[in-house]
Amino acid sequence: MTVGHHTLHEVAELLGVHYMTAYRYVRHGQLSAEKVDGEWRVTVADLEAFREGSGSGSSRGVPGRSRRTAPWAERMEARLIAGDGSGAWGVVEGAMSAGASVDRVYTEVIAPAMVSIGDRWAAGELDIAAEHRASAVVQRLIGRLGPMLARRGRSRGVIVVGAPAGERHSIVVSMLADLLRAAGWEVSDLGADVPGESFVTAAAESDPVAVILSVTDSANLPAAAEACAAIRTGRAGTIVIAGGHALVDSAASASIGADHCPHDVDELLALLGQLVVDSRSA
């Protein structure tokens, strides 16, 4: 054992639980741990934090906090950085067991974890390998969660979604597409790195309620502006909505020429609903 750390067997003994129970705490992201030379190790501080947050007796180890206060995003981040797909899915199951809906798992667990990982990579705290490994795990999570968001019934209309040329962050687009489908929209998902003319083609094919551009990297704001201009020229009257990590203020939003730049998914969904109402009353 490294000084300041416990093995998982020691953790199980200290908590008074079976080894596999302690292992499940780690896999579900409830107990922070690091794998060193093939062995899980838990710091003394992390074990004490787990104890303080989990109560005692027969409920020991069961999170005592609600979905809105439990650190599900932090737990997810740790599993994603480790490339631990099973553990990441355990965090999803834990959050849902605590009352989180699938859409909130997207917006309150996975998305914040990925934003934090991206910020840490940009700050030089994480290697690009860790960011790519995390992205691969998230893609698998979306593959499992996406079908749960499918909604039957009449479509509210078509939405074209994509990221402009140069944008590599397709995960954001995939998550947004799933959330829109859950709200009853039919989605034309173009993915990432989409030329402006391709947005025009997709709009011409589907006559959408709106085209949504996702811009994560500020370096791609000029490409987003070009996409907006192409849509204006090739498909006049089409509503263009932009959002993403790169649109940090009103100046950035105005620079690309979008019609609307909602702050979050809830505001976006409300906006789309209003657009339908306005189009019917026009």
Describe this structure in a few short sentences.
With 282 residues, the protein is an alpha/beta fold.
Describe this structure in words.
By secondary structure, this protein is an alpha/beta fold. The chain folds into three domains: 1-64, Multidrug-efflux Transporter Regulator, Chain: A, Domain 2; 65-149, Orthogonal Bundle (Methyltransferase, Methionine Synthase (B12-binding Domains), Chain A, domain 1); 152-281, Cobalamin-binding domain (Rossmann fold). It contains twelve helices and seven strands. A four-stranded parallel sheet has the order 5-4-6-7, with helices on both faces. The longest helix has 21 residues, at 102-122. The model is unreliable at 55-69 (pLDDT under 50).
